[in-house]
Amino acid sequence: MNKARKERLYKDVEFLTTLRPYRNYLNLDSLNKVCDYLKKEFTKSGFDCGEQKWTVSGNEYKNIIASYNKDRSKRLVVGAHYDVCGNQPGADDNASAVAGLLETARVMAENNPGIDYRVDFVAYCLEEPPFFGSQKMGSYIHAKSLHDNNAEVIGMICYEMIGYFSDKPGSQPVPFPDLTGIYPGTADFIIVVGIKKYNDFNKKIHKLMSENTKINTEIISFSSPDGLAGLSDQRNYWKFGYRALMINDTSFVRNPNYHTASDTIETLDFSKMTEVVNSAYNAIIKIN
Predict the structure, then answer these.
(1) Cβ atoms of 281 and 105 closer than 8 Å
(2) Which residues pair with 56 in a beta bridge?
(3) Is the separation of the CB atoms in 46 and 109 below 8 Å?
(4) Which residues pair with 118 in a beta bridge?
(5) What is the pLDDT of residues 38-87, one digit of tens each?
(6) Which SS3 state, helix, strand or coil, does residue 235 take?
(7) pTM of the full predicted structure?
(8) What domains lie within the chain, and their CATH numbers?
(9) Span between the terminal Cα atoms of the chain, in Å
(10) Which strands, in side-by-side order, build the sheet including 74-81?
């Protein structure tokens, strides 16, 4: 079976982090260059690409969607946002996840798994402030369109910050004291984050990601969709009753570069990112 390749992940992150002006909501030219890159990369893997467009304050924004097994009715959504917060390169947040999305699609195309459901790879815009939490988020637009079209959705997997790791003991803080002991104190793991309402889905993804993996995979299910549970695009699928979760490196809890100019490509661990993609791919092709 073909596996993820870190040199391709690096190339994707390099492209995204060197775009100027930065790929925030104000810089439409840069956002459109990201869309062109995504379409080119998906097309090279043999996918048909679609655009989902909406308008905010007179500006047009796009989700880019590539589908595997497009003729099947049941679908799994795998998504990541490509915009950044302000003027910073956004290597971990969220170029790492966009690269992971592209690489997962490449590995799927190369292996051509005989699954009986559709997989939609969706790259979202407007996840970041000032639109976070609003109905203008690209993931809200996409989730609502599925609901409005009565789509049969298996679930949604959100890639959000999958590139920052450390092998140093004590490198993994906890955001609240009551989470002490829930996960390791060394920041060398990836974590499945969800809500208890969809705990069966969370546990299944975690179990599949943990099979034959070279990276430790942890899991946490919060009682409420608010707070830490809902800090990315998965939140909008919950609003429409879809099972959804986030695959994450614990974000700002671990990564001191979050939403700053120091979130650069040099801070990422591409070997571990590669294993995250391999683990997630195993879950994606076995979830149903």
Answers:
(1) no
(2) 59
(3) yes
(4) 75
(5) 999 999 999 999 999 999 999 999 999 999 999 999 999 999 999 999 99
(6) helix
(7) 0.98
(8) 6-284 (3.40.630.10)
(9) 20
(10) 49-56, 59-68, 118-124, 74-81, 152-160, 244-248, 189-195, 216-222
